[in-house]
UniProtKB/TrEMBL annotation:
This is Putative U32 family peptidase. InterPro entries: Peptidase_U32 (IPR001539), RNA/ubiquinone_mod_enzymes (IPR051454). It comes from Endomicrobium proavitum. It comes from the Bacteria.
Amino acid sequence: MNNLEILAPAGSKETFIAAVAAQADAIYLGLENFSARSKAQNFTRSQFYDCVNFARKNNVKVYVALNTLIKQKELSDAIKQINFIASCGADAVIAQDLGVANIVKQYFPQLKLHASTQAAIHNSYGVLEAQKAGFKRIVLARELSFQEIKSISSKTNAELEVFVHGALCFSVSGVCLMSSFIGGASGNRGMCAQPCRRRYDIGAKSGFYMSPKDLNLSAHIRELKQSGVSSLKIEGRMKSPQYVYKTVKAYKMLASDDGIQTANQARALLEQDFARAKTTFNFIKKSDDIFAPQTSKQIGAYIGKISFQNGKIQVKTDVQINSGDTLKAADSKNDKYFKVNILNLNKTGNAYEIETNSADLKTGMELFKTLDGKFEEKLKKITSEAIIEKQNFEIKEKEIPKPKHAKAKSEEKLFVKIDDLNWLNILQPSGNTNAIFSLAKQNLSKIDALKNINYFELPAFIDEADLPQFQAAIDKLKNKTFFLNNIGHFRFFKNSPAAAKLNAGAFLYSLNSFAANFLFKRKIENFVFSYEDDFYNISDLAKENLADKGIFYLSGFPQLAVSKMTPHKDLRQEENFSSQKDNFKVINKNGQTIILPQYPVMLFNKLSKLKKLGIRKFIIDLSYIKPNKTYFETMLGAYSGKIQLQNDFEFNFERKLK
């Protein structure tokens, strides 16, 4: 069994101090830009410099999250930030963007690279290829089980990090476009509007069907030690100092001592994290109890149902209530919550009478404790003793040349992406031989029928157990072109580098020239523009002579979320659901839940603008559409300009990717 690092979140100076006081081994945080938690308070440059020095004095490591996708125009600022992080002596940078990885490895070799969970690395191929690319540590996807983690660990000597406590995303991180689709605020750029926490309508029913409970693996420390991981990560850069202190302290206790008494003390602390209900997700076995459809909020520790009369609450509970506590009353049926101000408090046995001036309280409401007043005072005393000295600093800027790409001009090419072989009966008579076939798990058994297809796309998520099956299928498809959607996909071709041609799919993001350069160095010939990218960034890439290398989606149903969660029973297969003005549909296949827009993205009317930039390669995506000759002919007519289609949705093309 190895010594486990306890990795704490910090979204502010106060939570940073709390993490150090709780004896965290390492802390991860973000600066004001390029962090996947842009809505956290985060750290100014001077705060960061001082905190790094404070951490060093306390033998605590500092990892900096620079884990968003970087637009072309942002490269200069991103490079300055990396230089600043390196100059301050941080221990590592956590990255998603392949361009950031390219820059760090080439120009800042003193900085260790950690692959963010946003990189969606979920199997041994991903870990091995990330390690080959220069990453020293990989933060594994939250979706993995104990057995999968153990299997991955046995095949690599890379450091592995896993989330053990805190909020879960409905989608696999890094392949979620849902927030971006709704309003342009991308989860891949730290701007997630949390669409999975919305209320959704399914027919006559309504609920928070995509809002998962919080993760808690505190009961499985023994398995985590056996799994071969190096670090246990606590989610919570937007949480309070009290949350950070309690969770770090608890996991530190559990990792250091297997005793029953210690375990009980630690779990008592975790019961007071005042967050959502808990789940172990997929860690031991796939759970059917992941969602809390009644509410998406962090409601705290349940106290009991109240009776309310004349400004006084009556409630019976075993939960200790003190005058300095923060309480909240819930009208669960209407998903409304009200702060309860404690003016006076009396206790008789386990019965409390709370005098309050809070409005809107009613008998039958549920009362929750969201902050422990006594513990808060104790924590303030502990953290007030920590002195972070302010220090002057001077950073010498570093000039880094952008990658140069030769200008080229190829012939125009139209690809047609399909997920059903019956489309071939329609495509082939039309003369289009550029079909891209989705090599999903259910299609692997049809490999002998696929030999006349020249292009294949690999799915963004491939389970560890399915790697041999995919490898065998790919080995049979010699001299074909493959679209890759994860860094791990490169490993399928390590023994036959010359036989296959490689393109980067939309989930192997290339929003800047350094990311494109990373891909080209690995024999990628072309890259697909992300569905969520905008015209302005694509124009900037064209100025770097990358237009001819780009392939653009003109139409289709983009995957907005890919989830490994067992869907809530009300979220039926291919059933439409909605929230406010946004309409979606759900597909359940091969243990995955895929969220699609109800109506397709259509961008045929942007063709002339795209061609002026030098883009010559385009995709009509027929995935998730039943083979239909009329529909295909309509798409071809729109492409040729003979048919004018009303645009159902343009994604971020004109409104900009935030």
